[in-house]
Each structure stands twice: as structure tokens, then as C-alpha cells.
Design goal:
Shape: elongated
Low-confidence stretches: 93-104, 272-285
CATH topology of one domain: Porin
Order of helices and strands: HEEEHHEEHHHEEEEEEH
Number of strands: 11
Structural class: alpha+beta
CATH architecture of one domain: Beta Barrel
Helix content: 10-25%
Largest sheet: 8 strands, antiparallel, barrel
Distance between the termini: 45 Å
Number of helices: 7
Length: about 280
Amino acid sequence: MKKYVFYQILILVFVIINSTFAQKLEFGPEIGLNIIPIEKSEVDGHVSKLGFNGGGFVSYPINDWLSVKFGLKIATCSKSYLQTDTSAISEMIINAIAGSGIDTSMSSQLQDFINLSVTKYTRSNTNFTFLNIPVTADFNLNEKFSFSLGGYFALLLAAKTKEEITQDIPILQAFSPVLGTNPLVKQIISGMYPGVFEPSFSEKSGVSDFNSFDTGLEIAMRYKMENNFSFSASFKKGFINYYKDLPDMYEVNSGKHNYLTLSVGYSFGNVYTSKAKRRYDIPQE
């Protein structure tokens, strides 16, 4: 309900602005791709993922070289993390044996000779959908190029998380040929340690684990063509961590949304009036 009211308010503001300043406004649709860095590895280097952005913009000229630009866009982006947890399988076994009343005093000596560690790796990637509202000051460098500087506000609409779990248990790997011939034992161990024999995958949707609001810096360059099309490249640097509670053990590229956007747009409104005045030497009002 809150999101519906929010959208209605934005549409109402857009209509009021358009009807009030229609003679001066430049407005139109924009669509493009987001290039999001999601991971950095020693083998592959920086790994990026593509997202989508689309919506519209309204630009109001203050004078010949400065305009104020507002946008309303749907944008998708991604974040990933790796969590590493290390424990000792002997502790789990000791607790189980101790519950049966069996003496476990020799367990510490056993651990000195055999690697009983358990290393759990959790890899997660989340795809986000945001409603972005960029607000920038556009500086016209000449008739074709402009530079923008400002910020953006974003409301999280949806999130979908995919998770992969693998576990490294050296003592089980040593006995894997034997375990492979006993499906029942293998099934029991897999139930206790998901991902030990093969990766375990899970998927969930929801925004409860993430911050519902984001804001940050936006800079952009825009090239305007004679046919009213334009091409732009912008960079967004978020100020807010995407996860509500991101533990220090998580290895992340960044806890904030940072990505590059490449877009193509089409302009209506004031762009026609400006060209006509230049073409026929009509005095500026």
C-alpha cells in the first residue's frame, strides 16, 4: 500500500511539473545497462554482471549552461559475498559421544594426529530491483556534451538470493572411496554436512534482510545528437550498506552499491524549441 501511494505521488508531481513548465522542459525516456562489479578473484580478476535500467527524465533549464534534471527509473543490480566458517568435527562427535556416557578424554590426543577440521564456504549472490530517483545538476559544455553531478535516492522493490554451500572435511575426503560404496552412510553425512560431497544450492526471495533505502553520489557524461537521441555514461556510488547486518567474516567486493550505467535516451519538449530558435534566428524569450 505504501509503495502504491508513493508511485501515485511521483506521477502527480510529474504531471504538475509538466503542465506548469511545459514550455521549457526537456523530457523523455531512457533505457540502458548497468555494469556491476560483483567479485574479485586472483584467477579471473574483476568479475562483473549486467543489470537493467529504464524509465524517464525531466530537465528544467536554469540558464544556457545549467539545468536541473530529475529521473524516475527501475534499475536492477547485484551483490555477492563469501562467508567462511571453520570448526572441528571432533567437537560435534565429542558432544554426541558424551551424551551417550562414553569417555572422551582421548579426543584431544586424537586431534593432534588427524585433521578433523570442517571448513564451510557459503557463496551468495542477490539480485536487487530498485526504484531510482536521480537528481542532478547538468552543465552544458557545448551543444552536444553535458556533464552531470548530483545524487540519487532509491527504494528497494524486490530481492532474490541464490546460495551455494560447500564443505571441506579432510578426514571424509580420505575415506571418500569407501563412503562412495555405501549410499546410506553418504546420505547421512550429507544431511549432517550439506555440500561436503557436492555443492548444495538454495534460493529465496524477500527484502527483509536488506536495507529498503539507498542513496549515493551520481556523476554522468551525456552526448546529444541532432535527431534528439542521446547517449550517456554514469557512475553511481552508494553510501549505505545493502545488508542490514553484514558480519565481518563476510568477504565482499563492497558493502555498498557501486556500478556503471550506459544509457540511450530520446528528448521531447524544449529541445525542439531550442533548435528552431537557433535555426531561424528566433530571439530567445
